[in-house]
Amino acid sequence: MVPSYRLVTINLISSLLPPVLQHNTDDAMLRELIAEICRVSGDRVYIFERIESSIKGDALCLGRPVDYYTSIFKAHGFELQETQFINIRVSYYICGAIRKLLNPKDRKEGEPLNGISIFLQNAFLLVTPLLDRIFTSGKDVGKLVFKKIK
């Protein structure tokens, strides 16, 4: 059963959405949500989502292809204007490895990291953004800009 919700129309020029669509793993609910977003949006919609070459993930988070979002938004009067990937892959993997290796295996999400882990992550983050620019990716976190078709 799809929960009932209604977005209120506000006179906006644009709508900016943080990464939330990727957590809507029910296809029918996602399509309904995008329809509402388009209905209440002005000229543009900006979404920041996990992008994959095919639909991948689990019950909590699905990465979807750009074409998937493009077809749904187009059905509601918006066309894809811009795609930009936020290349943080090297930083993400290095900091993730440090976090996994230097913290207890039974550490729960939200519990503090140890000091050495924090220090090393901060130290590597001085260098890894340079590597992120070299080793770019056409997936992971992407910004998609949709413009209303006139």
How is this fold's topology laid out?
Layout: E1 14-17, H1 27-40, E2 44-51, E3 56-57, E4 62-63, H2 66-75, E5 78-85, H3 89-102, H4 115-124, H5 128-134, E6 140-148
Parallel strand pairs: 1-2
Antiparallel strand pairs: 2-6, 3-4, 5-6
Summarize the model shown.
The chain is of the alpha+beta class and 150 residues long.
Notes on the structure:
- With 150 residues, the chain is of the alpha+beta class.
- It folds into two domains: 14-87 and 138-148, Vaccinia Virus protein VP39 (Rossmann fold, 3-Layer(aba) Sandwich), CATH 3.40.50.150; 89-133, no CATH class.
- Helices cover 37% and strands 22% of the residues.
- It is built from five helices and six strands; from the N terminus they run E-H-E-E-E-H-E-H-H-H-E.
- A four-stranded mixed β-sheet has the order 1-2-6-5, covered by helices on one side. It has a two-stranded antiparallel sheet with strand order 3-4.
- Helix 1 links the parallel strand 1 (14-17) and strand 2 (44-51).
- It is elongated.
Reported by name, the CATH topology of the largest domain is Rossmann fold
Strand order of the largest sheet: 1-2-6-5
- In CATH, the homologous superfamily of the largest domain goes by the name Vaccinia Virus protein VP39
**SSE topology string:** EHEEEHEHHHE
As a percent range, the share of helical residues equals 25-40%
Backbone shape: elongated
β-strand percent reads 15-25%
- The CATH class of the largest domain, by name, is Alpha Beta
Uncertain residue segments:
7-11
Radius of gyration: 18 Å
Q: In whole angstroms, how far apart are the ends?
A: 34 Å
Count of folded domains: 2
Helix and strand composition category: alpha+beta
Counted by DSSP, the helix tally is 5
